[in-house]
Amino acid sequence: MKLKVFHRTQYRYANPVHDSFNEARLQPTDNEEQQRQSFILKVLPSTRLTHYRDFYQNCVHLFELPRPHDELCVEVTSIVTTSNTPRLDLGARPASMEDLIRCAELDRCYDFLQPSDFVDMGPDIWRLALDVAQDESDTWQVAQRIMGYINREFRYQPNSTHVHSTMKEVMQLRAGVCQDFAHVMLGLCRVLKLPARYVSGYLYNGPAEQLKGTQASHAWVEVYIPSHGWIGLDPTNDRVVDGHYIKIGFGRSYGDIPPLRGTYRGTTERKLTVEVQVSLIDETATVGPALATA
Length: 294
What we know:
The chain is α+β, with helices and mostly antiparallel strands. It folds into 2 domains: 2-82 and 258-282, Immunoglobulin-like (Sandwich); 97-256, C8orf32 fold (Roll), CATH 3.10.620.30. The chain has helices at residues 107-110, 123-133, 139-153, 167-173, 178-190, and strands at 2-24, 34-44, 50-53, 59-65, 69-82, 155-156, 175-176, 196-203, 218-225, 229-234, 239-240, 245-251, 260-265, 270-282. The longest helix has 15 residues, at 139-153. The radius of gyration is 19 Å and the shape is globular. The relative contact order is 0.25.
């Protein structure tokens, strides 16, 4: 599938602010499942952009606005080709839970087995995870059971939480949005020693589909399946990640991969407006060789 993303974030301040320093993680990645065709990032007031790769190799754009301004607009237009073929069938049984023993020794897995400010791994989470797994012995099937449990037992309810809500708070509320569902799934997977990482991106909702979390930044989880690598699961929609998803990057939790983060001097009174549109350009487009990333 060939998809176009338009993402605009706009801040309006009650009084002029200054010394604004910002990071943007908005550039789609290139991998076997998707290819970035184009990416345009605009900032108003206009300023110089630089970029670097963070610890997890996500592309981070930097910009600063030292002079007074009463509005900040960050606008992104991306075109991405995605693969619509999931890497594993739902009924596959590729690896036993016993195969996860060595994952803690792997550099690519270690960070994604640990708790964090957003992800809880206490005894109550461990007991719940065991109940959800129900003695299932296959890693892929366990991950799907956890995904299905969250989708059934938690309400998708916009504005019920905020970007700093923790997994523990969401567990008590039993409601939230895609970010919250991803954090709950991270905790339930990791406590069973199943490596899981937080993914930030976008989700395309086709004309005949009723997917949640579209027309906004979306979040899901990738679990590590021995001999198959990282595979995406979306607990918000109880769905294996396919060509409807555009990946920006990943981290241990939301704190590692926020779309936009920054500081400034001045008033705290501001109005935030976010607009995201994901549209289909060509349903028959196929992914080619991965491009070299900037």
